[in-house]
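Thread: quick sanity check before group meeting

JM: Hey all, I'm pulling together slides for Thursday and realized we never actually wrote out the predicted structure for the chain we discussed last week. Dropping the sequence here so it's in one place. If anyone has concerns about the input, flag it before I start.
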Amino acid sequence: MAGTRYYWLKLPEDFFRRGYIRRLRLQPDGDRLTVIYLEMLLAGLKTGGRLEGDGAEDLAEELALELFENPQNVRTVLELMTDRGKIRPEQDGCLLTDCEEMTGSEGASARRMRGSRLREQENREENAPAREPSLPGENDGGTPAIEPFRPAAEDGADTVRERYGRGSGGGSFPIPVPPLSGSFVPPR
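JM (edit): ok, ran it. Output follows.
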C-alpha cells in the first residue's frame, strides 16, 4: 500500500523582491498575475514542475480551466515568465524551472513521527519543574554540596592523621590494594 505523501511550496525569503516577480507585479492587475504564477507552482508540485495539457486546446486555455482563472491572465503569465526563463515550453505543456528548488515533501509516516516528537517535547517542557537559577557551588537539592577547604588550624588538627583519625603514632597508613592477577609481586 502506497503511503500518503504531503507536498509544500517553499518560497525563498526574497521571493517577492526578485526581479521577475517585481516585473510581474508592475503589470496591470499584477497582483492577480502573481497569484496565478503561485497557483501554477502549486499545480506543479507533484509533477516536478511539469504542467501538461492534452494538446487539443491552447495551453493557456487548459491551465485557465484547471486554475479557474481568466485565460488572458494565464496567457500573460506564461508569456512573461517564458521571457524571463522561469517557464520553459515543452511538447504537451511547460516546465516551471523554479518549482523543483521550491518543493518540499514528506511521507505520512515522517509527518506522524515529527508530530510525535513535537508532542513529547511539549510534555517534557510541561512536566519539568521550574528552577530558579543557582549560583555556582550552591546545593540544588539533587547533588551534595562540595565541602569547602578547611585549613588545619581551623579545626585544631595539626596533621592529616589527627584530622581523619588514622591513629596517633608513627608508621604507615594501611592502603587496601586489590589482588593482582598473575604472579606479579610488588617490589619492597
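AS: nice. The longest strand covers residues 5-9. Strands lie at 5-9, 50-52, 87-90, 93-96, 103-107.
JM: adding both to the slides.
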